[in-house]
Automatic annotation (TrEMBL):
Residues modified as 4-aspartylphosphate: D53
Keyword Phosphoprotein: yes
UniProt GO BP: phosphorelay signal transduction system
Residue intervals of the Response regulatory domain: 3-115
Name of the protein: Response regulator receiver domain-containing protein
Amino acid sequence: MRTVLIVEDEFLIAIDLKLLLERFGWSVFGPAATIVEALKLLDVELPAVALLDVTLKDGAVTPVAEALRARNVPFVVASAYDRPELVGGDVLIGAPNVGKPTEQRRLLATLEQLVSC
């Protein structure tokens, strides 16, 4: 099953992403708006892939990215930053960045690529 965890603190963006991904057959966890929420969801079930906003209301998404790496779950960042690792730390180095605003085709292609690896 194609499952994705969405970590995004802007409500309208999170809902748009959720509806988009569900329309294309993804099963969505969340969206989680905070680091704590995201970590709780990861304790319940692991997604195939995650989509992360770099800056959340309660801080950088770094602890979530570290938890995903520790569990071998690939992730994508959705960030307007050219170099999200400067904000979110070294754990984000090499993670695909689908940009913000996120273009639909690019997002879907990137997620598909990560789950097929």
